[in-house]
Predict the structure.
Amino acid sequence: MLTTWKLRSVLGIVAALGYAVLCAAPHPAEARPQYAKEFLTKYPGLKAEANKVKNCGVCHGGDSGADKKTRNDYGETLMSMLGGVNVKPAEEINAALDKAAAEKSGSDGKTYGELIQDGKLPGKTVAAE
């Protein structure tokens, strides 16, 4: 039979291990999920394409969306239209999406809006300098 101090020790170890497991669980890294949400709400036909690049790839890291520190040309344009970082109101994000859609892209002289109408994601990878 376990003595009181042994029981408390075992329970303490089990609790610490449980806490460690909960803290080590992966967390999604969505720094600005409101942008992806509003983009997909505005352009629902691009959801499948956006999912291929994990949503953030619409503005970041080109086709893979892996590099979240680098914006593609569409991401740079959208950021300049937002006028700041971490803009939250949906109205402001939608206004910036509209303005960005009117801008010329680097693809075949089309605007970002024309690319979106063609069912293509608007971003093109910007070459590293």
Remarks:
- The CA atoms of residues 13 and 19 lie 10 Å apart.
- The mean pLDDT is 82.
- The first helix runs from residue 4 to 24.
